[in-house]
Design goal:
Number of helices: 1
Largest sheet: 5 strands, mixed, barrel
Distance between the termini: 48 Å
Number of strands: 8
Structural class: alpha+beta
Length: about 120
């Protein structure tokens, strides 16, 4: 049995193996190591569409977001939801309304848009 799992641009294939003492062995393969650039790029293009569709389902929803940084131009606070893993999942861009004091704090954010693997939102006051 084969299944696939993706997260923020990384595509992994899990191959389920045999049972030994009722434990199911799972081997994780980094697909980029096994395929060429052309196929990898094609897979990633499809993955980005899937991710974008999944993220679009979050538009209109509210999330607790940990504000971790500010964008280089100062226009956005940068954070992540509780479900997001740093350096793997996308980030949440929040319009900066001179609220840099919110860095390292949780805020409620209303999601208004998506861009690639990231969410865009505004703080709910």
């Amino acid at each position: 049995m084969k299944t696939s799992f993706s997260s923020a641009g990384l595509l992994y294939v899990y191959i389920t193996g045999y049972k030994e003492m009722e434990l199911l062995h799972i081997e994780q393969i980094d697909t980029y190591s096994y395929i060429g650039d052309e196929l990898y790029n094609k897979i990633m293009e499809i993955q980005q569409k899937i991710s974008n569709e999944n993220l679009k389902n979050k538009i209109g929803q509210e999330f607790e977001v940990l504000i971790e940084d500010i964008s280089f131009d100062g226009k956005y606070l940068i954070g992540r939801t509780k479900q997001d893993v740093p350096d793997i999942d996308g980030i949440v861009y929040v319009k900066n309304l001179d609220k840099t004091s919110l860095i390292n704090k949780f805020v409620r954010v209303h999601i208004t848009d998506v861009k690639n693997y990231d969410l865009i939102g505004k703080i709910i006051e």
